[in-house]
Specification:
- This protein has 259 residues and is mainly alpha-helical.
- Among the domains are: 43 residues, no CATH class; 108 residues, Cytochrome C3, CATH 3.90.10.
- It is 32% helix and 5% strand.
- The protein contains 9 helices and 3 strands.
- It has a 3-stranded antiparallel β-sheet.
- Strand 1 and strand 2 form a beta hairpin.
- The longest helix has 31 residues.
- The protein is elongated, with a radius of gyration of 41 Å.
């Protein structure tokens, strides 16, 4: 009887151990690797989907606008001014003949300098006889038809008027380069604007490509307004409220009469 009792006790202890050991292992694993609780939907606010407005419906474009794409003044130069042919962005550096070309800085060292374009004042170089451009490739003795005619275009505001000299242009080019494809040779027939020039039209067909860029305003706007013209502009200005002839003063007079 005693043997049976001891055997039953041993069986009970073994059964208890079999149940206890798995539970202890589970508790130990959870203590070592605690389970992260996911935030409930009630505690965390959810973002509402954006409304389909015009601003959100348009795709974001990082490229510049059409005006900036054609505006050569807003593009960074490929290389420094008068760089060696292999680094100027024009010649092929893989071509052996490129490295045998003369550097522009060496060829231009005796020419008059300026601050824009390729840093050479070609008009002064032509006037001083430092260069002699060919008018006709087939006839080196051909002479240019130089037209000494100056056109002054009045511009609005206090900006100096534009002076266009035909002489400096016809020393290089024939009349057919501009007339009638770009400009009509008739007074008042050409509507010229800075927007069109910056887009590569009108004067911008050459200036900024093969002639000096329009970054130096005074090279074209070279005729200042007279004192009388500036006084007349000041009287018309809306910022001169105290001026008797100003538009702002006239507006005050009308409002006082209405009262």
């Amino acid at each position: 009887m005693r043997k049976c009792k001891t055997a039953s006790k041993l069986v009970g202890l073994l059964a208890g151990l079999c149940l206890f050991l798995p539970l202890a292992m589970i508790v130990q694993s959870r203590a070592e690797n605690p389970v992260k609780k996911e935030p409930s939907s009630a505690s965390t606010p959810t973002r509402k989907p954006a409304k389909n407005t015009k601003r959100n419906s348009r795709p974001v474009q990082n490229r510049p606008s059409a005006a900036n794409a054609f505006n050569r003044l807003m593009k960074k130069p490929v290389s420094r001014a008068n760089a060696k042919p292999a680094d100027d962005g024009i010649h092929d550096p893989a071509n052996r003949g490129t490295h045998s070309l003369q550097w522009p800085s060496e060829a231009f060292q005796d020419l008059p300098k300026t601050h824009d374009g390729n840093r050479i004042d070609w008009v002064k170089a032509l006037d001083r006889g430092l260069i002699q451009p060919w008018i006709d490739l087939e006839d080196p003795k051909a002479e240019a038809f130089v037209m000494d005619l100056v056109i002054v275009r009045e511009v609005k505001g206090s900006m100096p008027d534009v002076v266009y000299p035909h002489k400096q242009h016809t020393q290089w080019l024939e009349c057919s380069n501009c007339h009638d494809g770009i400009f009509l040779p008739q007074k008042g027939a050409n509507q010229i604007s800075m927007a069109g020039i910056l887009l590569g039209r009108q004067c911008g067909v050459c200036h900024g490509r093969v002639a000096f860029p329009v970054s130096d305003c005074r090279r074209c706007h070279s005729k200042p307004k007279s004192v009388e013209q500036l006084k007349a502009l000041a009287k018309k200005s809306i910022w001169r409220a105290g001026d008797k002839g100003g538009t702002a003063a006239k507006g005050k007079k009308k409002s006082s009469k209405a009262k």
